[in-house]
Structures are given as structure tokens and as C-alpha cells.
Amino acid sequence: MKTIFLVIGKTTDKRIATLTDEYISRISHYMPFEMQVIPELRNAKNLSQEQQKAEEAELLKRQLQQGDHIVLLDEHGHERRSMDFAQWIGKRMSAAPRRLVFIVGGPYGFAPEIHKMAQEEISLSQMTFSHQMIRLLFAEQVYRAMTILRGESYHHE
After folding, report:
1. Residue 154 lies in a domain
2. Low-confidence ranges of the chain (pLDDT < 70)
3. Whole-prediction pTM value?
């Protein structure tokens, strides 16, 4: 199973990008993992929130494949503790979908059609973080989950 982390717009803060890349490199020792960046919309300031979500939805759909298990990172999704997330991701890995795709939407969230396509929605916190920070936090949590599944000493309960 390949895991795809699909995000909109590049990370402009080099410190966050460096840390995110470090965790992605670590994850890759455990499973195939790739962050795919969809370029930001041009002229987004001239679009309404709904138009922006609709255009982002079209860009996201182009990256998805038949049989993908789609998980949205959304503030209204289900929250899990790190141990629970590790068990959840372990089950997804053993269920063997061809690709497990996690998606971070644009600044206004997801269009309704993307919500309908998703099998699940998870939230990393009830707090709001920048899209750049979410990338780092999510990559760290996936790495943490891998170490938990392997019984390594990174996570302390």
C-alpha cells in the first residue's frame, strides 16, 4: 500500500518545510509515503469561497485514482489519540487498499463533492493551525504511528 499526502500550495516557511521533509524521510523507512503538492489557484482573490473550493476540488480529483481510500484532514473529523491513530493506520495498511490518500484542503476547506468522495475524515485538533503547520504535525503523527506499530521507543505513554 502506498500512502499519499495530498496538499494544496507549497510550504513557504523553509523551517517548516525542512522539518516536514525530515519526518517524511523517516516515514519512508516504514512504508511508501509521498507528499504531493497541488499548486495554489491563480487569481484566488477574485474568487468567492465556494468558487475557490470548487476549483480546488477539480484539481484534487485529478490526483485521485479508482480504489483510493480517501481520508480528509478536516476540523470536523474524528479525533484520535496517537495510540488509536497508530492502530487505525495499522488496520488500513493490513486492509491493503492500493493507495491510502490523506488530503489537506485549501483555506476554506473542501467542496461538498470531496466530502462525499471521502471514506473518512479525521481532525488533528480542535484548534486551528495553518496549512503549513498541519503538514508538519500530520507527518510527525504518521511517523509516531509507525514507531508505535513497531514497538520503538519514540512514543511514551
Report:
1. no
2. 96-97
3. 0.94
